[in-house]
Amino acid sequence: MHTAHMLRQIGADAIHDDEISAERVRGRYCIAAPSGVSRDPDAAAERDARRALELGASAAAIITRDALGGAADVADLIESANGAGVDLAALVAMARPVAGHAAAAVPIDWPAPLDLTALAESDPLPPRHIVPDWLPAGEVTLLAGHGGAGKSQLALYTAACVCLGRAWCGLEADPRPVTYVSAEDGADVLHWRLTRIAAHLGVTLADLSALRIIDASHIDAELMREIPYGEPILTALYELMRCGALRYVMIGSDRRIPREEIERIAREGAPGR
Asked: Across 7-11, 145-149, 150-154, 197-201, which has the greatest mean pLDDT?
């Protein structure tokens, strides 16, 4: 219920519990939708929206029964779509403000501006790189190319060079522990490729002790799961990737892992990254 990107209904179970309700709605833009169990669903939605305002919501609006096209509630609307999808943003756009309260734009929590006076008192630090000018530290880097071009092979070679502190394509790599998550290639392919990479570098697999490889090819390689209510659930794979001395993570995957979650891992890396 906090932005136009996620439509949530203020449930009766939460409305009767001030502590839980206040935590859910305080400072947020809340939208109440009709409930199929109400005799007068529009009136019930308006009561819920007003209750949200009493509990500290920054603004509140309601979606009327007419906006649902005859569906009993949002859940019924989604079910009736039969997998075709429901444009929740369009529903949010049709929400009307609570009577007596002005409509409000969805709030955006902007960070505080940089203090240039404080910055002027210290010397700027140059951008940090794992591989000079190619692989920045603490950032998300995309290795793009056509299928079969060798992206996974190159990524695995890069991981080996970084964990050993060996030159990568003639550029000195900053040595650090590496976690390589393979959501495409399985253990057999990884073994085949890594053995040949080690031979090319003149080392053995045992020398790659700073390289941790996770074979995620046989699982649903999600870092988080969206749920209808509450905050997204972070998966065990997410916790596995961010635990320990996380310094550099490479993910060989498709579009199953959201970019924002990869960015969060980059931000939460160990000091010095």
From this structure: 197-201
Q: Angle formed by the axes of helices 18-25 and 41-54, to 10°?
A: 80
Residues in the chain: 273
**Tokens (6 digits) for 146:** 């056509």
d(CA 11, CA 113): 37
User: pLDDT tens, 74-97?
Assistant: 777 777 766 456 677 777 777 888
User: What average pLDDT does this structure show over 216-245?
Assistant: 57
Placement of tokens 């136009």 in the chain: 4
Question: HEC profile for 137-166?
Answer: CCCCCCCCCCCCCCHHHHHHHHHHHHHHCC
> What does pLDDT average to over the chain?
74
Best CA proximity match to 201, nearest among 243, 154, 164: 164
SS3 9: coil
Q: Is 6 exposed, middle or buried (0-12, 13-18, 19+ CB in 10 A)?
A: middle
In this predicted structure, the answer to whether residue 14 has a pLDDT above a threshold of 50 is no
Q: Which helix (H) or strand (E) holds 59?
A: strand 59-62
User: Domains of the chain: which residue ranges?
Assistant: 12-97, 129-267
CA distance 251 to 240: 13
